[in-house]
C-alpha cells in the first residue's frame, strides 16, 4: 500500500524543517519497507503571494485525498506588521482546521534527559514531567462571530462561542486519552467568569459518570498557568478550549527546553495534520539554523496516530533522543557548545535510522 502524504511547508523556516522531517520519514519507510508518496501544496503567506488565497481549494483537495498532512508553519512579518491586511496567512491555518474538521490538537509535553538543564525551571520540578494537552481547535473566540469594529473604529469585539456538541466530543477525547495514560484528567476553564466555560463544566460533569476510573479535576485557567510552571508533574491529560490551549502550550514549552522540540497532531473528521507547535520563526528563515526536531517528532506522531505504526514512531523518538545525547543539536539548545545546522541534524537523524 502506498500512503499519500500532503506536504504543506508554508512560510519562514517551514520549508527547511519540513525537508528534514521528510528525509527522516523516507529513511523510516525504507527501513520498514513502506511506500510513501509526497505531494507539495501551497499554504500561508507564500500561497497569498502566488494565488491570492492562504488555503487554496487545490491544497484542500490534496489534503482531503491524502492519508496524512505534514505541515510546517505559516506567518510573515509583512502581515504581522500590517494589521489592516484583509487576507492574512493565519486565515489559511484556521480555514484548514475548519475545513478538515480538526477539532482536537494533541500536544504532548515532556522532558528530554539531556535538555533538562535548558529549562528555566528547576530540574527537580521538570524532571519526569509528562502530560498531554488537548486543545479544542475549531471553536471559541478564534472562530466566533461577530468579530470586528464599530463604525467609528474605536471599539473592537470578538465572540467566544461553544456548542454542547463541540464541547462533548473534545472532552470525551480527553477522558479516552486519560484512560490510556495515568487516568487523571484536568479540565481547564474560566467558569467563574465566562458563560462558555460554564457550559464546558456542565457538559463535562454530565460525561464524568461514564468514566468512573478517571480522576477528574476542574481548574481555572489562571491557576493552570501557574501550576504548569510550579508543579508540572501533577498533570496527566489536560483538556481545554482553543485560546487557553494556545497560550498554555506555549508556556509549557519551557518544560521541554525549546519551542523547537514540541510536536503536535491535529485530528478530527477528515485527514489529520502533523505540525510543530511553533510558528514560522521568520528571523531564522533561510539561515539553516532552526531546530527541526519538533517537526521530526510530529512525523513520529504521524506514524503512530495516522498509520498505527508504533515501532516506526519509536525509532524516530530514539533517533532524536540519541542526537540530543550526542550533542548534535541546533543553536537554540547548544548551550554554548558547537551548534549544528538544521540540515546536519536532519542528516544525522537519517543516518541513525538507516544504521539502526
Ligand atoms: N502554527 C503556525 O503556523 C504558527 C504558530 C504560531 C505563530 N505563527 C506565526 O509565526 C510568525 C512568528 O511568530 P512568533 O515569533 O510569535 O512565534 P515563533 O514560534 O515563530 O517563534 C518564537 C520564538 O521561538 C523560538 N523558535 C520557534 N521555532 C523554533 C525552532 N524551530 N527552532 C529554534 N527556535 C525556535 C525562537 O526563539 C523564536 O523567536 C508569526 O507570523 C505568527 O503568526 C504560526
From TrEMBL:
Pathway recorded for this protein: Amino-acid biosynthesis; L-leucine biosynthesis; L-leucine from 3-methyl-2-oxobutanoate: step 3/4
UniProt xrefs under InterPro entries: IsoCit/isopropylmalate_DH_CS, IsoPropMal-DH-like_dom, Isopropylmalate_DH
This protein's GO CC annotations: cytosol
EC number: 1.1.1.85
Binding site for substrate: 97, 107, 135, 222
Span of domain Isopropylmalate dehydrogenase-like: 4-349
Organism whose genome encodes this protein: Ancylomarina longa
Entries under HAMAP family matching the protein: LeuB_type1
Protein name as catalogued: 3-isopropylmalate dehydrogenase
Matching SMART domains: Iso_dh
Keywords on record: Amino-acid biosynthesis, Branched-chain amino acid biosynthesis, Cytoplasm, Leucine biosynthesis, Magnesium, Manganese, Metal-binding, NAD, Oxidoreductase
Cofactor: Mn(2+); Mg(2+)
Catalysed reactions, semicolon-separated: (2R,3S)-3-isopropylmalate + NAD(+) = 4-methyl-2-oxopentanoate + CO2 + NADH
Predominant subcellular localization, coarse grouping: cytoplasm
Family: Belongs to the isocitrate and isopropylmalate dehydrogenases family. LeuB type 1 subfamily.
NCBIfam families: leuB
Subunit structure: Homodimer.
Site-annotated residues for Important for catalysis: 142, 190
Cofactor remark from the record: Binds 1 Mg(2+) or Mn(2+) ion per subunit.
Subcellular location: Cytoplasm
Cited function: Catalyzes the oxidation of 3-carboxy-2-hydroxy-4-methylpentanoate (3-isopropylmalate) to 3-carboxy-4-methyl-2-oxopentanoate. The product decarboxylates to 4-methyl-2 oxopentanoate.
Amino acid at each position: 500500500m502506498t500512503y499519500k502524504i500532503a506536504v504543506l511547508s508554508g512560510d519562514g523556516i517551514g520549508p527547511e524543517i519540513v525537508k528534514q522531517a521528510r528525509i527522516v520519514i523516507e529513511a523510516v519507510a525504507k527501513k520498514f519497507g513502506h511506500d510513501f508518496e509526497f505531494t507539495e501544496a501551497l499554504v500561508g503567506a507564500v500561497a497569498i503571494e502566488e494565488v491570492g488565497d492562504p488555503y487554496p481549494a487545490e491544497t484542500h483537495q490534496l489534503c482531503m485525498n491524502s492519508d496524512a498532512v505534514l505541515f510546517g508553519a505559516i506567518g510573515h512579518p509583512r502581515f504581522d506588521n500590517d494589521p489592516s491586511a484583509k487576507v492574512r496567512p493565519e486565515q489559511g491555518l484556521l480555514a484548514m482546521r475548519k475545513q478538515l474538521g480538526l477539532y482536537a490538537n494533541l500536544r504532548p509535553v515532556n522532558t528530554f534527559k539531556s535538555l533538562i538543564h535548558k529549562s528555566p525551571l528547576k530540574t527537580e520540578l521538570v524532571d519526569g514531567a509528562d502530560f498531554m494537552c488537548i486543545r479544542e481547535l475549531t471553536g471559541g473566540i478564534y472562530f466566533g462571530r461577530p468579530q470586528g469594529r464599530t463604525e467609528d473604529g474605536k471599539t473592537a469585539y470578538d465572540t467566544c462561542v461553544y456548542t454542547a456538541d463541540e464541547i462533548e466530543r473534545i472532552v470525551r477525547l480527553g477522558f479516552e486519552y486519560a484512560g490510556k495514560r495515568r487516568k487523571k484528567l484536568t479540565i481547564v476553564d474560566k467558569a467563574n467568569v465566562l458563560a462558555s466555560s460554564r457550559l464546558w463544566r456542565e457538559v463535562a460533569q454530565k460525561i464524568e459518570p461514564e468514566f468512573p476510573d478517571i480522576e477528574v479535576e476542574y481548574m481555572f485557567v489562571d491557576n493552570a498557568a501557574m501550576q504548569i510552571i510550579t508543579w508540572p508533574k501533577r498533570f496527566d491529560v489536560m483538556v481545554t478550549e482553543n485560546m487557553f490551549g494556545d497560550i498554555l502550550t506555549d508556556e509549557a514549552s519551557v518544560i521541554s527546553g525549546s519551542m523547537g522540540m514540541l510536536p503536535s497532531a491535529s485530528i478530527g473528521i477528515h485527514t489529520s495534520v502533523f505540525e510543530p507547535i511553533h510558528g514560522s520563526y521568520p528571523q531564522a528563515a533561510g539561515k539553516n539554523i532552526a531546530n527541526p526536531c519538533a517537526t521530526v517528532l510530529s512525523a513520529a506522531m504521524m506514524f503512530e496516530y495516522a498509520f498505527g505504526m508504533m515501532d516506526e514512531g519509536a525509532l524516530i523518538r530514539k533517533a532524536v533522543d540519541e542526537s540530543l545525547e550526542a550533542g548534535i543539536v541546533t543553536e537554540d539548545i547548544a548551550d554554548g557548545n558547537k551548534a549544528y545546522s538544521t540540515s546536519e541534524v536532519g542528516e544525522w537523524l537519517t543516518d541513525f535510522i538507516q544504521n539502526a
